[in-house]
Design a protein that fits this description.
The structure is a homodimer of 189-residue chains. By secondary structure, the first copy, chain A, is an alpha/beta fold. Chain A is built from 5 helices and 7 strands, in the order βαβαββαβββαα.
Chain lengths: 189, 189
């Protein structure tokens, strides 16, 4: 089966291809770099769903496709940066998040990382959503060289390691994106 | 002339009605509380334009209408929070912005406040944009009781006062929203 992944983020393409290979699924993922519009909404489920519908209506691609939207939801900051995680990362980076969290201790540092995959089997079908999430804490400082984005400040629950301190395999096994993507792989294969 | 202002922000309605009265224009502003969709885009001009087009297409209201989008662009934070100013304010507030700016001094505290009004004369016309902006610095602390949103941390250039320390008249005379809105009033009257 061949499916199209619409994204402008090469790190995500690599993660998804690694996972498809690791799961030994007979799926070919083709990457199309296309900057589709995203709405300003509080829930990434709704953002991904509306974007998938847009692609379906405007592009009417003849192959199954999916998009992915992820967000970091910091409990003590009312879910910030949430659906605007990519924008906020580009503007203030991990350093900005650490400043906002400087006076937060223990349980106050709790955070949820969440991915929504919106998959359309054909132009006639409504998007099917696969959600994955993972819990952790905002680390006290940037740690590790792996991953991308907020990975160096996301300390996975119980592991004491940030996602950036884990190997790709370790991270994908427990990450929000890994969990959502395996649901997609199981559904289509 | 009667025009419709689509917004969910009552503070903005009050400001605009005050200004229309102050300018003695024969314009009746009707407020419709409608939470139209906004796209995630870097430029508020584009956000406002697309939202106005959406209202025009989906609602096809038979009267002239306008919407307004404003953003706080902090130079040292690469324009953050920009088009997501309302969301960021709801999540981290002025306190969050002050934390992000704690190590910034002098010129590093420069900020632009900007408003875009997108006005549609009829369902057949493309949105006409009116832009207003004003320059200032992020204050060292929250000051003043007036205004709303980021007003208590926006110190107007040269005045030494935050927008929240000014009277409505003082603020409207120099504010981003005042400047954009007067352009609209002059255009339609």
């Amino acid at each position: 089966m061949e499916i199209i992944f619409f994204t402008t983020n090469k790190n995500k393409v690599k993660e998804l291809k690694d996972m498809a290979a690791a799961e030994s699924k007979n799926i070919r993922i083709e990457h199309l770099e296309y900057d589709y519009p995203e709405l300003q909404l509080e829930e990434i489920e709704a953002v991904a769903k509306e974007s998938a519908k847009y692609i379906n209506e405007k592009i009417a691609i003849k192959k199954p496709f999916f998009i992915e939207d992820s967000g970091l939801f910091i409990h003590a900051l009312n879910g910030f940066p949430g659906p605007f995680s990519a924008y906020v990362f580009n503007k203030i980076g991990n350093e900005g998040i650490l400043k906002l969290m400087a006076d937060k201790k223990g349980e106050e540092r709790k955070v949820t990382f969440k991915t929504v995959v919106a998959f359309c089997e054909s132009v006639k079908t409504a998007p099917h959503l696969f959600v994955g999430s993972t819990e952790g804490k905002i680390a006290g400082e940037v740690r590790g060289e792996g991953g991308f984005g907020y990975d160096p400040i996301f300390e996975f629950e119980g592991a004491g390691k940030t996602f950036a301190e884990m190997s790709s395999e370790e991270k994908n096994a427990v990450s929000h994106r890994g969990r959502a993507f395996r649901k997609l792989l199981n559904y289509i294969s």
